[in-house]
Design goal:
Layout (H helix, E strand, L loop, with lengths): L2 H6 L3 E15 L2 H9 L7 E15 L3 E5 L6 H9 L6 E6 L3 E4 L12 H11 L4 H15 L14 H13 L5 E4 L8 H16 L3 E5 L3 H7 L2 E6 L2 E7 H12 L30 E2 L4 E10 L7 E2 L4 E10 L6 E8 L5 E6 L15 E9 L2 E2 L3 E10 L2 E6 L3 E5 L10 E2 L19
Parallel strand pairs: 3-7, 3-8, 5-6, 6-7, 12-20
Antiparallel strand pairs: 1-2, 1-4, 8-9, 10-19, 11-13, 13-16, 14-15, 14-18, 17-21, 18-19, 18-20
Helix pairs in contact: 4-5, 4-6, 5-6
């Protein structure tokens, strides 16, 4: 039986059978030596379980995605599949040649040139020198790093390293391709080329195991997904079901802390006193946000935006100094951190009144959502007055965009009506 025929006899490309992986954590560098000195009769470490009794299988030819927060065990699972790590208990079965794009520059010698590292990396992946030579031109062309191919890798930018690493990985003709977060450092043009190549490999029947924090990429190529949390499986199944559950859990707003009695008035029961997330915050402090919330049109917490729906962005702020011409709004950003759209009260013809010190205002923005690509979007609220920023909070709330009925190419699906008008209602009969 040939190697190809033998591989075809396996239904699953990867199988995890009650796999656990533990690491020894030492509080001080000398504790490891102490443990060696007593020949292990006394323990000076604590065990950290990166994976705990994990069982799942990946079918041959499918695109399998692993999602989870940092530290959930995603990279450990990929390293076990690649053979870099061995399980503490349980069994990992891998059927097929594995090509891995894991840590940035892994397997590259920084003192070697790019050309030398192509041959080194190819040998690590099991290719002969003749096989690497036959594919070298294609690898060089795909990487597109020019004359740097003959310079030491230590002189490369992170983007150039990942270009070369990905080019080698995909031209090794893998049966199983592992892709971690490395593509996140590439420029947009190269990431698009990589995603097209991933689609090509999928069409050829290559098994792909993909880890990414970009929900748009995961939804675009994935078929099934595994959600890991603290080294254990939370959900396993259809990509849409698992990803929707994961994103709903990640974007659920934190409980609001107890707060003083809100002011009386029409907006008293609308006052928000929690800010889900603060990446960066700046401003002169003349006014500050008390709370930020993204709700559905029924004023319930929103976990998933859907096309052609309405959402409510609620911003509560308090002035600490007199503000003559205040304005408030927010920036909508996509998963790449690019400003996608901006809305403000003055721009919508509803400018804020003058604010006195201590005065509290809650502003509601009712937004109609078009059909956007299924990625994650963050809301960055801001307050300005007299041309100066009073308060600005980067990515205060992040919400996932759900997948609609239509197909979105690029970023947004424009509402379009197509009409067919006959040029000649009575055409001359054709001669056959």
């Amino acid at each position: 039986m040939s190697a190809h025929d033998k591989l075809g006899s396996y239904v699953n490309a990867v199988e995890f059978d009650r796999v656990s992986k533990s690491y020894s954590i030492y509080e001080a560098p000398g504790d490891r030596l102490k443990e060696l000195a007593v020949f292990g009769s006394r323990s000076f470490h604590r065990d950290f379980r990166a994976l705990n009794d994990l069982s799942f299988s990946i079918r041959r030819g499918e695109v399998f995605c692993i999602v989870g927060e940092n530290g959930s065990g995603k990279s450990t699972a990929l390293q076990l599949i690649a053979g870099i790590l061995q399980p503490t208990s349980g069994e990992v079965r891998v059927n097929g040649r594995v090509s891995a794009l894991l840590e940035l520059g892994a397997g590259f010698n920084p003192e070697f040139t790019g050309r030398e590292n192509v041959f080194l990396n190819g040998a690590i992946l099991g290719l002969s020198k003749r096989e690497i030579e036959a594919r070298y031109r294609d690898i060089e062309a795909f990487a597109e790093i020019g004359d740097f191919i003959d310079r030491p890798v230590r002189t490369y930018s992170s983007g150039m390293v990942v270009r070369l690493a990905f080019a080698v990985a995909i031209h090794a003709e893998p049966e199983i391709l592992l892709v971690d977060e490395a593509l996140a450092v590439g420029d947009t043009y190269f990431r698009h080329r990589c995603m097209r190549k991933v689609h090509e490999l999928r069409a050829r029947g290559v098994t792909i195991v993909f880890v990414s924090h970009s929900s748009a990429d995961v939804k675009a190529i994935g078929e099934r997904a595994l959600w890991l949390r603290h080294g254990q499986a939370v959900a396993l199944g259809d990509i849409d079901d698992v990803l929707d559950r994961y994103l709903a859990a990640m974007t659920a707003p934190s409980a609001e802390p107890s707060s003083p009695q809100p002011p009386q008035g029409a907006s008293a029961n609308r006052l928000i006193r929690s800010i889900p997330n603060v990446d960066q915050r700046h401003g002169d402090g003349r006014a500050e946000f008390l709370g930020v919330a993204v709700l559905n049109e029924y004023e319930e917490p929103l976990h998933l935006m859907m096309p052609d729906s309405k959402i409510l962005v609620r911003l509560s702020l308090q002035a600490s100094k007199p503000l003559a011409r205040p304005d408030v709004g927010f920036v909508l950003r996509n998963h790449l951190g690019l400003d996608f759209a901006e809305v403000c009260a003055a721009g919508e013809g509803r400018p804020l009144p003058r604010l006195r010190p201590g005065e509290i205002v809650t502003v509601d923005f009712l937004v109609e959502i078009p059909e956007l690509y299924p990625g994650s979007f963050s809301f960055t609220p801001w307050i300005i007055s007299e041309g100066s920023v009073c308060d600005w909070i980067d990515n205060a709330v992040t919400v996932q965009m759900g997948k609609g009925e239509g197909y979105v190419y690029g970023y947004v699906q424009w509402p379009v009506r197509v009409e067919m008008n006959a040029v000649n209602e009575s055409p001359e009969p054709r001669l056959v």
